[in-house]
Amino acid sequence: MAAVEPIIRTRDLNVYYGPTMVINGVTMDMEPNRITAIIGPSGSGKSTLLRCFNRMNDLIPTFRLTGEVLFDGQNLYASGVDPTEIRYQIGMVFQRPNPFPKSIFDNVAFGPRVNGFKGDLPGLVEQSIRRAALWDEVKDRLKESALSLSGGQQQRLCIARALAVEPRVILMDEPCSALDPISTLAIEELMRELSRQYSIVIVTHNMQQAARVSDFTAFLTPQGDKTSELIEYGETRQIFTTPKDERTEAYITGRFG
């Protein structure tokens, strides 16, 4: 069986804010059409690492990176790479739902319009909302404000908005932390469904969620100088049942973090 070519790879990735190194030497390969979870205690740099994958950290003036982040073999931080184009291919869903103060339709249509989409926009909006498992709930309300939706519906709308620009990868930064258990379950089921077509990387504090939804898990934690390192990375089942590092076992069993 042929080896699967990773969609995102990091090679000796180091991240700095000003003179302070916050992430040290992360090397990992993420497979296409799989869900990769990044876990670790608060302050371990999980979100910082996630945002390296679509250059969102570029918006922080003191941010600096060494090493490589490769997307389909291309170094995302090479000169001449357009961060905006990267963010169309590698979409992002944030911790709290952040719909625009526009209609449900216009939220999903926003990205394609900005991108100069010339095709069937209503069809694309419907397809994106369907893929986000929201269509039956909003199909008769598309002209209503997105802010009228529940929190769980707003988060699925934000996922639909990300899907509308036809990305290849979806980054999710604790997408369920502001949601109730029923909405959380709906988002988790949606992630599993979406992983048939998209590669997903999720940051989560919730060990049970990582175990339920992800195929691979990366455990990141600060070391003595507070610089975070990748302690262990592998198939989720292995990480949660037979971790190779005692620090991984201590974290997932709740003995620290």
Describe this structure in words.
This protein has 257 residues and is an alpha/beta fold. It has a domain at 8-98 and 168-252: Rossmann fold (3-Layer(aba) Sandwich). The chain contains ten helices and ten strands. It has a ten-stranded mixed β-sheet with strand order 5-4-1-2-10-9-3-8-7-6, with helices on both faces. A hairpin with a 5-residue loop joins strand 9 and strand 10. The longest helix has 14 residues, at 181-194. It starts with 7 loop residues before the first strand and ends in a 5-residue tail after the last helix. The relative contact order is 0.18. The model has no long low-confidence stretch (mean pLDDT 93).
Please outline what is shown here:
With 257 residues, the protein is an alpha/beta fold. The chain has helices at 46-52, 83-89, 104-114, 121-131, 135-138, 151-163, 181-194, 207-213, 236-241, 246-252; strands spanning 8-17, 20-30, 35-39, 63-71, 74-75, 90-93, 169-173, 199-203, 216-222, 228-235.
Which features does this protein show?
single chain, about 260 residues, alpha/beta, Rossmann fold, ten-stranded mixed β-sheet, 10 strands, about 35% helix, globular
The proportion of residues in beta strands is: 25-35%
Parts with pLDDT < 50 across at least 5 consecutive residues: none
Q: What about the largest sheet?
A: 10 strands, mixed
Structural class: alpha/beta
Which word captures the global form? globular
Looking across the biggest beta sheet, what order are the strands in? 5-4-1-2-10-9-3-8-7-6
What's the CATH H-level homologous superfamily of the domain at 8-98 and 168-252? P-loop containing nucleotide triphosphate hydrolases
Mean pLDDT: 93
CATH C-level class of the domain at 8-98 and 168-252: Alpha Beta
Order of helices and strands: EEEHEEHEHHHHEHEHEEHH
Q: How large is the radius of gyration?
A: 18 Å
**Distance between termini?**
39 Å
Give the tally of β-strands: 10
| CATH architectural label of the domain at 8-98 and 168-252 | 3-Layer(aba) Sandwich
Number of helical regions:
10
Indicate the percent of residues in helices: 25-40%
